[in-house]
């Protein structure tokens, strides 16, 4: 295609190709403010072809430029890896004298607040050439955006910050940005400003795990470590634009740490306390898969997913799509890690059995 050749030669995207509509998707059931919506970009097909080609080239180098703590969108790494490592770290903390703290961070409007200049700075530090950096600046900084309000487009405006959700490049570019946080945390750990968990005779030091914007910190329960971590997060916010929403972040105690101490640490972070098990990447971290309640929570999640759908508004074809594309993946996800307990009915102990159980449940709810 000619426009691909022109982009490669000139490093510029034709404005008409890079126009975008943005629609707002509800994030929560109760909608009160604009923060309760998630902006999704409806990117044009011509630009998407270009972005997909660049994303495929970028994907091949992600395992070289992205640190080992990041598991998202990197070939050879899986979401399950983050969960299994987190389980091992917590298990070790529980059996140590001083215990530990788990800080689950929540980024506020992560994709929408990325600073373009910091993104370019990170790419330069990783060794990207002028041409590649220019291509990325052109793709992220030049789009003209129109909001869709009640089906009608508003006047166009440019993007000063942020990455478009819906752009094939965005997940990889976001990984490059949050790699800055990984570098800061590793530097602080090596300098003794933060202490996590050590394995293999102190050869492996784990202070944090990342999956895209899902980040958890493992910190020893000392005030100086927590204050250093908070200062570091504030510095990262100032340079990258990624702000931590401490109201949604949580601090959980691990091992012998007392509840009163945990509350004091949480006050330092200006966030709330919680207790294990907590949900991490869709899995219950430090849950008890041998109990019936653990698996009953899976049924509760399915019911919650079905709640917005009304039976009278779904055709049988639509119901089948809902089952195959959405609901059937939920038990599969759990079975990647957890084994169904013996206490469940015999016919439900196999993966086939649990699928049958889910399908019967759905048939009763949606297809009667």
TrEMBL record:
SUPFAM superfamilies: DNA/RNA polymerases. It comes from the Eukaryota. InterPro entries: DNA/RNA_pol_sf (IPR043502), RT_dom (IPR000477). Pfam families: RVT_1. Residues 6-285 form the Reverse transcriptase domain. This is Reverse transcriptase domain-containing protein. It comes from Dipteronia sinensis.
């Amino acid at each position: 295609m000619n426009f691909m050749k022109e982009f490669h030669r000139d490093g510029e995207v034709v404005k008409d190709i890079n126009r975008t509509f943005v629609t707002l998707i509800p994030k929560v059931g109760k909608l009160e403010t604009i923060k309760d919506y998630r902006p999704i970009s409806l990117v044009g097909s011509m630009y998407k072809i270009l972005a997909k080609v660049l994303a495929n080239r970028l994907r091949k180098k992600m395992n070289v430029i992205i640190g080992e703590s990041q598991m998202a969108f990197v070939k050879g790494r899986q979401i399950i890896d983050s969960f299994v490592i987190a389980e091992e770290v917590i298990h070790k903390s529980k059996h140590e004298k001083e215990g530990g703290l788990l800080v689950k961070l929540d980024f506020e409007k992560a994709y929408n607040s990325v600073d373009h200049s910091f993104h370019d700075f990170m790419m330069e530090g990783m060794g990207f050439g002028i041409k590649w950096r220019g291509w990325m600046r052109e793709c992220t900084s030049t789009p003209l955006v129109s909001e869709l309000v009640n089906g009608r487009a508003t006047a166009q405006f440019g993007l000063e910050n942020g990455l478009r959700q819906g752009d094939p490049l965005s997940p990889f570019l976001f990984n490059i940005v949050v790699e800055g946080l990984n570098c800061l945390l590793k530097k602080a750990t090596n300098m003794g400003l933060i202490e996590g968990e050590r394995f293999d005779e102190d050869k492996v030091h784990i202070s944090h795990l990342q999956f895209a914007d899902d980040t958890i910190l493992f910190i020893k329960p000392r005030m100086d470590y927590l204050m250093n971590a908070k200062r570091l997060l504030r510095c990262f916010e100032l340079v990258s634009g990624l702000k931590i929403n401490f109201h949604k972040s949580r601090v959980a105690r691990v091992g012998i740490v007392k509840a009163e101490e945990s509350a004091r640490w949480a006050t330092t972070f200006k966030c709330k306390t919680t207790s294990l098990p907590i949900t991490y990447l869709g899995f219950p971290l430090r849950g008890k898969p041998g109990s019936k309640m653990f698996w009953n929570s899976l049924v509760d999640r399915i019911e919650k997913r079905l709640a917005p759908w009304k039976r009278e508004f779904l055709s049988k074809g639509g119901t089948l799509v809902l089952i195959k594309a959405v609901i059937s993946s939920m038990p599969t996800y759990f079975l990647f890690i957890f084994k169904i307990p013996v206490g469940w009915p015999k016919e439900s102990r196999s993966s086939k059995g649990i699928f049958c159980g889910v399908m019967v449940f759905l048939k009763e709810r949606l297809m009667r």
